[in-house]
Amino acid sequence: MKTLRNTFLGIMAISALYSCASSDKSEDKDKTIVKVKTYSPAQSSNEGFYLSGEVTAKQTATISTRMMGYVSKIHVKPGDRVAAGQLLVSISSDDILAKKAQVHAMIIEAEAAAKNAQRDYDRFKRLREQNSVSDKELENVALQNTSMDAKVQMARQQMNEVNAMLAYTNIRAPFSGIITQKMVDEGSMANPGMPILVLEQNGELQVVASVPENYIQYVKVGDAAKIELKSLGASIDGKVSELSPSAFRTGGQYSMKLSIDAKDKENIRSGMFVNILIPNKTGESIPSKIMLDKNSIVYRDQLTGVYVIDDQSQANLRWIRLGKTTGNQVEVLSGLSQNDKIVSKAEGKLYNGVKISVNNK
Known about the structure:
Elements: H1 2-30, E1 33-39, E2 42-43, E3 48-57, E4 60-63, E5 69-74, E6 81-82, E7 87-91, H2 94-129, H3 135-167, E8 170-172, E9 177-182, E10 189-190, E11 197-201, E12 205-212, E13 224-229, E14 234-243, E15 253-260, E16 273-279, E17 289-293, E18 298-300, E19 303-309, E20 315-326, E21 329-334, E22 342-346, E23 355-358
Parallel strand pairs: 1-23
Antiparallel strand pairs: 1-22, 2-17, 3-12, 3-16, 4-11, 5-7, 5-10, 6-9, 7-8, 9-11, 12-15, 13-14, 13-16, 14-15, 17-21, 18-19, 19-20, 20-21
């Protein structure tokens, strides 16, 4: 009995020691502090400001139909150049063709009835001149003749309606250009308004961008701009061709378009992303742009971010959108403010919520 009691006490002691050790480890983990160096991302510059943009065609059309039916034939594919009026898509139209035949028969019937009514009117008119019929009888025949003429016009307008419907079963190019997208395949059911193809005007390119409200006062139509194409490693000249006067329902972003010289369009393709420099011609101080050191950027798949220090001295990963790269620095277009403290170097592993000790010495 004594031996059993001693064994029980030993087990209890070991359990207590293990519990204390685990508690100490948990407390050590909670008290983990990573020493870091930080910097402020804001830098002043009066050379101008940068925007992100995209190359687009000057004229783009999404090809669709007003008819419901099966897509019987798509006559083009992405990359094909088409001329204005060229047949692009054919949609099954057996039901409309049957309707057209019915309307055609209605026209023949109405025209025959109208001819007969016209003969009756001419005959009654001669008889009235001979006082063989009354004015009332002539009037009734005249009304019948007018009614038959109206039925002919009604039938012809129905034919116009059917022909208009048939036009949407054979869709043609509204302008010359290049097919860039195909959304459906042959045999698919087309619904009214459903996109089938995308057509872009051939050779006519522009750059579209949005200007934040704090920069809009420094941009005017006709201003020159520098456009950098990252994918081509090239820089070209541009000019502000359009500038929206309103940012209603766009979150304080003003739509802007830039024209490109024809000589610079050879290797440029629609959809390319660009950086745009709008030079400062006013001489006034332009708001600071936010720049980051490259070595402080964190890459996760297709996302980019940086660790910032919050009010509780903890690290938080903030996702950001990057702009132009200048030397070892990258412009931040969104996601940061000038007052954020960015981690530039850490002596341990960073993760969300880890305690931070700042040492910028």
